[in-house]
Amino acid sequence: MLQLAVILPTYRERANIAPMVARLDAALQGVVWEAIFVDDNSPDGTADEARRISLTDPRVRVIERIGRRGLASAAIEGMCATAAPIVAVMDADQQHDPELLPKMLAAVEGGEYDLAYASRFAEGASTEEWGRPDRVKASGLANRIANKVTGVELSDPMSGYFMLRTETLRADAHRLSGVGFKILLDILATVDRPLKVKEFPLNFVARIEGESKLDQTVVFEFLVGLYDKWLGRIIPTRFALFGTVGAMGVAVQLGALWVLLKVIAGERFVYGNWSESATFNTANTLAAIIAMTFNFVLNNELTYSDKRLRGFGPLLRGWAQFGLTCSLGLLTNVGSAAVLKTIGFHSVVAVIVGIVLGSVWNFALSSRFVWGK
Ligand code: GDD
Ligand code: MN
What we know:
By secondary structure, the chain is α/β, with parallel strands linked by helices. The protein folds into 2 domains: about 5-230, Spore Coat Polysaccharide Biosynthesis Protein SpsA, Chain A (Alpha-Beta Complex), CATH 3.90.550; about 235-370, no CATH class. The chain has 12 helices and 9 strands. It has helices at about 15-25, 45-55, 70-80, 100-110, 140-150, 165-170, 185-190, 220-230, 235-265, 275-305, 310-340, 345-370, and strands spanning about 5-10, 35-40, 60-65, 85-90, 115-120, 125, 160-165, 195-200, 205. It is elongated and about 80 Å long. The structure holds guanosine-5'-diphosphate-alpha-D-mannose (GDD) and manganese (II) ion. One of its GO terms (cellular component) is membrane. Pfam families: Glycos_transf_2, GtrA_DPMS_TM. InterPro entries: DPM1-like, Glyco_trans_2-like, GtrA_DPMS_TM, Nucleotide-diphossugar_trans.
């Protein structure tokens, strides 16, 4: 009977698939297992490679997702796609040692522990990948919050290598966030009762094939995950990010305007007295373009990091499209405020409603046209 499913999210891991399957096979002698590669339509043909192996080794399964990106959601979908009573998640890039799987299985299968995971910072562990902020020993604010949120002391709450009973996961799968949150943390924070966790020291080796896809924004991602967990149902996380970036854009425009006026008007510049309207309008147009560009870059990096535009062509096109949507948003903003004011609303109320409507409009348009498919 099927005992264990190993979920391996992949993005551009073609060269790692065959070695990974061979290593699973070697490590899991005597265990009835399946491996599920969850690939986000990698351009290097990772899914094809996994399907090629699956033809002769049906223990290997493939889920290919089109038009979506994301490690956490890939892991969740993989875990929900197996009939095996126990499920593990691990990286497909061979940085996680499959030799730990039988030990984790022994801990979880007997019911002694609810969850087993591999820690890069437990006693006896090691890591060949220092120099990245999240790779630095568990001490940071993120880890302290993580321990508070989960009620479990973990030496490596950001680990991506763990195992648990599938039913534990399935009972709460609909409440998992799947957004920018480390999936292990998400599970521990979502399951209501504290889970009994067994730690295994991991020797986190350097990558041999391919390159890392996770960026330096781990702490940011973590905060987004917390937000999503607590407030995501009230204000959609992406819209909250978009709005926050927009508010920063306002500050950038004001700052840029101030600097530009000082530079252009020089000696004649008196703060609060922008009487030369031509100068003012030129400077403010430039400041608006600067703010718009700032918003575009930040949204591309953070709000839409999973759909990030890359390369000169796509970036230029995205920037122009974003400029266009912002202009339409501005019309919505100013227009709705004007209407509200005419029908007797207080100016401040009219302006605020205008800002909200303009932002919603901007968000809807740019989600669809700038970062949409
Ligand atoms: N399906 C899918 N979609 N898989 C992805 C995506 C994605 O958008 N991004 C990355 N992956 C896969 C990779 O192909 C790899 O198998 C695994 O997820 C880990 O990605 P890496 O890019 O190798 O991550 P890392 O080594 O830098 O990060 C490691 O440390 C993190 C904590 O700092 C991983 O172990 C993470 O799981 C861990 O959270
Ligand atoms: Mn890796």
